[in-house]
Amino acid sequence: MELMDPVFARASALGRTNAATKIVVATLQTLVFVVSLDWVTSSLGLVLLLAAMTAAGMRPWAVARKLWFIFAAAVLSGWATALMAEKSGRLLLDLGPWQVSTGSLDSGIAIMLRGCALALISVMFLASTDAHELGESLAQTFRLPARFVLSAVAAFRLMGLLAAEWQTLAAARRARGIGSRSALVALTTGFAQQAFALMVQALRRASRLAVTMEARGFGAGPRTWLNPPTYHRVDVVVLILGLLIPVIAVGASLALGSYRTIF
After folding, report:
1. Which end of the chain is less crowded, N or C, counting CB atoms within 10 A of the terminal residue's CB?
2. Considering all CA atoms of the chain, what is the largest pairwise distance in Å, rounded to the nearest integer?
3. Which secondary structure element, helix H or strand E, spans residue 217, and what is its range?
4. In 3D, which of 3, 30, 12 has the Cα closest to residue 245?
């Protein structure tokens, strides 16, 4: 199941937005959520991002099913923060060296929700952006070097191939009867082995691609670009709405007096 229908992706407002606009919005949103350390900002931002994802034609449940490991990592990071953060307030859990207080629990929840929000920002950008548009925006709007632009476009294209190869590796393991057990240890071991196999394939593909691009003269000198990036009213709308998400989240946190930063 695709995270975003390919036809609707081009017809939706997010799909028709210039890649440079989405880069600015995603960067600013990421910076705001990274420096925030309270659960009000993270939770409200996550709710607004889920609403934006639904309006963009993505299915949140499909995203959760495909990228469950990212959200699982966010939960684990939140739990680790609750255990390791400075204890303040009332003690909720006391298991010897493992202690959780109301203050550390708030920090853990904030970290967990922040991780989920950052994941949604990346998903919306990657699912609605075309590699050609990304390259044109990086080269002509941000004036980045051609070597960097071509590398970014190649890496962007390979991300879809990595997802397909992951599914192929999983099907091959099931066909051979590997990792068919449902025990937690077996699942963890199988995931690590499959991830290592995917990393090996990615390195081999990247090496072949680098040699091929160098042989064809990519990045050897100045380049011309076919389609200049264009901006329309939809870019202004997406820019304003995208920046309103962190503004509303931080504003609500400031109004409630709970806003904290990592500094």
Report:
1. C
2. 65
3. none
4. 30
Cα(43)–Cα(85) distance, integer angstroms = 19
How many residues are given for the chain? 263
Token pair for 247: 């503004």
Q: Give how far Cα 257 sits from Cα of 38, 40, 163, 231, Å.
A: 10, 10, 42, 39
Query: Residue 92: which pLDDT band, with cuts at 50, 70 and 90?
Result: confident
- DSSP letter at 33 equals H
Q: Are 36 and 114 in contact (CB under 8 A)?
A: yes
For helices 233-256 and 19-35, the axis angle rounded to 10 degrees is 10
pLDDT digits (tens, 9 = 90+) for 69-89: 788 888 888 888 888 877 777
What radius of gyration, in Å, describes the C-alpha atoms of the chain?
Answer: 21
Distance CA 156, CA 59 (A): 22
pLDDT in tens, 42-59: 999 999 999 998 888 788
The helix/strand/coil state of 137 is helix
Domain ranges of the chain: 6-134+233-256, 145-216
Q: Which residues pair with 261 in a beta bridge?
A: 36
Task: Report residue 154 as tokens.
Answer: 């190649």
Tell me if 246 sits within 8 A of 117, measured CB to CB. no
Model confidence pLDDT, tens digit, residues 225-250: 777 888 889 999 999 999 999 999 99
Q: Give me 44's structure tokens.
A: 């409200």
The tokens for 159 are 């991300």
- Determine the residue type at 160: G
Which residues, listed in sequence order, are joined to residue 93 by a DSSP beta bridge?
100
Q: Rounded to two decimals, what is the model's pTM?
A: 0.79
